[in-house]
Design goal:
The chain has eight helices and eight strands; from the N terminus they run βαββαββαββαβαααα. It is α+β, with helices and mostly antiparallel strands and 252 residues long. It folds into two domains: 169 residues, no CATH class; 59 residues, Orthogonal Bundle (Arc Repressor Mutant, subunit A), CATH 1.10.10. It has an eight-stranded antiparallel beta sheet with strand order 4-5-3-2-6-7-1-8. Helix 5 packs across helix 7 and helix 6 crosses helix 7. The termini are far apart. This is HTH DNA binding domain-containing protein. Keywords: Transcription, Transcription regulation.
């Protein structure tokens, strides 16, 4: 199996829902599951971000009537429904289903139509970028997919084809180590690079945020989320706290 990847970039105003991600850098989404047939495409997306970003996302999502960045490329009207399966103040798990038809084909449909059965699709969305990763057979003819994608891009969208290589890191559905999103990983890398974890601390979060020109609250949210993912991954669900071990360590 091999992976090919491409990134669709959106200009502001090209898509109302994508504008929410552009306006809220701390907001990101990734696919949990995605399937497409001639008649419909359905998927589950995990969306995470600050409360105010998710409130804006909820408001736009409830009014979707045309193909948008999460559901297609054509911008045409569609039959579409969604349901929030799980909800916390900083996350949503969203099931959605849309109609498929000539003139309004989703990216998953175009990929499956050209590559056939057995294809797996992963997508991540943040800022103005929608990054797609496709797992397919070694002999899959991906050039036809690239041509079809370019022909179907509407105004305000551009596409860059990133790579074709041996499949890697699909055990975690394409997310980074410990389940990190790209924005969370970037926040951790910034913190390490600028000495946030050093003793004494070389730079504060406010100073690091100013260096990269993002709001301190955005950096704080991304870093806190990343730290939580890393800690939960390290500790695991089956870990049991032993007070005696803590007392023993403290006495040494």
């Amino acid at each position: 199996m091999r992976e090919f990847a491409f990134t669709v970039t959106y200009e502001r105003g090209a898509d109302e829902l994508m504008d929410v991600f552009i306006d809220h850098p701390g907001l990101s989404s990734r696919t949990v599951s995605c399937h497409a047939t001639d008649d419909a495409m359905w998927r589950v997306d995990e969306v995470t971000g600050p409360e105010e970003a998710l409130a804006a996302y909820d408001g736009v999502l409830s009014g979707v009537t045309r193909c948008s960045n999460l559901r297609g490329m054509g911008g045409c009207t569609l039959d579409w429904r969604y349901e929030v399966l799980e909800e916390t103040p900083t996350s949503r798990l969203v099931y959605s289903q849309q109609s498929e038809g000539p003139g309004c084909r989703s990216i998953p449909y175009l990929v499956a139509d050209h590559l056939g059965d057995g294809v797996l699709i992963h997508a991540e969305q943040h800022g103005n970028e929608y990054v797609w990763r496709i797992l397919a057979d070694d002999d899959a003819a991906v050039s036809a997919v690239y041509d079809e994608l370019e022909r179907n891009l509407r105004e305000g969208l551009s596409i860059d084809f990133d790579h074709i290589e041996r499949a890697t890191n699909w055990s975690k559905h394409g997310v980074d180590d410990a389940g990190l999103s790209p924005t969370q990983r970037a926040a951790l890398e910034l913190a390490v690079e600028h000495g946030y974890y050093e003793q004494p601390r070389r730079n504060s979060l406010q100073e690091i945020a100013a260096m990269v020109d993002i709001p301190t609250s955005t950096l704080q949210y991304r870093l806190t989320s990343a730290e939580r993912h890393v800690v939960e991954s390290f500790v695991g669900d089956d870990t049991r706290f032993d007070p005696a071990s803590l007392a023993s360590a403290a006495s040494q």
